[in-house]
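Subject: HK97 gp10 family phage protein structure
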Amino acid sequence: MNWGNCDYKQLQRLRDSLATLQSMDMDRFCTEVSKELAARLLALVIPRTPVGQYPKSSGKKGGTLRRGWTSKTQADAASRGGSNDAKAYAEALPVRKSGNAYTIEVINPVEYASYVEFGHRTRGGDGWVPGQYFLTLSERDLERLAPGVIERKLEALLREVFNG
């Protein structure tokens, strides 16, 4: 009985590719994806963050809250005048791993950020200023985008392993 011919070279290449995939640093991959998602969140939230409008006579300048996204402290934001490079800032953020979860903290250290986000009482206490929900809406948008971003990054990794 003749079972036919078999070319084992393709199976050997598959074996080698699987070994390469297994030896890859998946922590590094997950960290890179986390930083990309953080950069995308910043790209969504920064333009959505409201800028205060003040009369010229007040001497106040709006934009502190918006500039706060890419600074570690409010003083740092004021001294730097803000940063348009959200991607570079996201790259500098630390990523923490706990079990199978990767966490990156994106915060706005401006002390009144939560009041603008969620709303607050007026000065006299008799009224309410509604929240702007700039971060909440940006997080929701990112949740919709994240699966596609992760899928594209994973496909690129697999192409590199199996075609490279």
